[in-house]
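Bug report (template v2)

What were you trying to do?
Predict the complex of my protein with flavin-adenine dinucleotide.

What happened?
Run completed; filing so the output is reviewed.

Input:
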Amino acid sequence: MNQDLLNEEEQLLKNTVADFSDKVLSERAALYDESGKFPWDNVSEIGQLGLFGLTIDEEYGGSGGTTRQLVVAAEEIARGCAATSVVYIAHLSLCTQYINMFGSAEQKAKYLPGLTSGQKIGAFALSEPGAGSDAANLKTGSVKTNGHFVVNGTKTWISNAPEADVMVTMVTQDSTLGYKGIDSLIIDGDLDGITVNKLNGKMGVRASTVGEIIFDNCHVPVTNRMGGDNVGFRQTMSVLNASRISIGAQCVGIAQSALEASIDYAKTREAFGSPIGDLQAIQWMIADMATETEAARQLVMKAATLRDNDLPFATEASMAKLYCSRVAMDCAYKAVQIHGGTGYFAPTPVERIFRDARVTEIYEGTSEIQRLVIARNLLRD
Ligand SMILES: Cc1cc2nc3c(=O)[nH]c(=O)nc-3n(C[C@H](O)[C@H](O)[C@H](O)COP(=O)(O)OP(=O)(O)OC[C@H]3O[C@@H](n4cnc5c(N)ncnc54)[C@H](O)[C@@H]3O)c2cc1C
């Protein structure tokens, strides 16, 4: 154990990904933000480092490892480039992990090797124009016929959709059944009857492409359903619970990058004849940012450690997502303040970080939904 309370293996992983983040991801982040293009070279290098296989069974091409290792990697990726970390988490914690947790041996053998190597891109399609927080109200329908589910409907705001080879998609055979009617299907992106429209105009995390997926009589083999009847929603919530820990780590990475940029700037920017870091007002902001970021990191680590020990972790995962997203926003806000006018203009990193942080309070369950989950769990006990 070291000062970060990481074991030797975790520290080694942190050093490797931190080096990649400093030398590669952060160098490219501004260009990707400007172009809004999918970061193929980052994805390819993340694949080469074996990071898409973290927590995935080695039998299916994964690299195994723990949730703690996954959050160490996710934090470092987000510290260098938040948009790339969205691609990473949607691909690994949502799509790949779903198949790893609930796929049959055949489904895992067919899909996981391509996903863990990064040769195939994964997406997780739950949200619809009329069903975001109220996910159980989804309407994308599937009708079982002659060995297929025929899927019709529209998904929206789906990360990685424009590039996705594999889409874990939630559908309903009978929307009057609510959450009980929901199935999860593995849908190949190249099937007939799928149109993906890239959604433009995103505030932040711009290189993480997002799409609308329209299914029009798309025939999905029945062998591509994960689990049996009435379990799709429960499976989906389990995957989201686990993935919220990764989003917490992403937020810590964003907060840490805001903190580091602020410390550097405070040492060099002068006002009234000395560095602004000599001013107590600036020192207090930096002290608060560092304290909040560290507290957020420990909350993420606690949720991850609980999960690794097969203990209940859903409440802590929601706490991590709720608190860490608040911290990412607060640190981004303070970082812009410390940078003054410079911080309001691109390509100052904190201008991008400020926009990137905002979405963390919205996706994978808004902050209001996290509070609802936390309170419901506490009041039920
Ligand atoms: C960049 C980006 C990427 C995304 N990626 C994906 C993805 O990969 N896959 C996917 O499936 N989805 C994805 N989403 C969708 C995201 O999960 C939803 O936007 C989110 O769940 C909120 O749903 P909504 O936008 O419909 O908001 P709504 O549900 O309409 O909520 C609007 C407001 O009402 C509040 N609210 C709603 N219900 C309650 C309640 N019961 N109590 C208190 N307040 C409530 C919300 O907190 C929010 O403030 C993404 C979204 C974005 C912006």
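What did the reviewer find?
The chain has ten helices and ten strands. The domain at 233-380 is CATH 1.20.140.10 (Butyryl-CoA Dehydrogenase, subunit A; domain 3).
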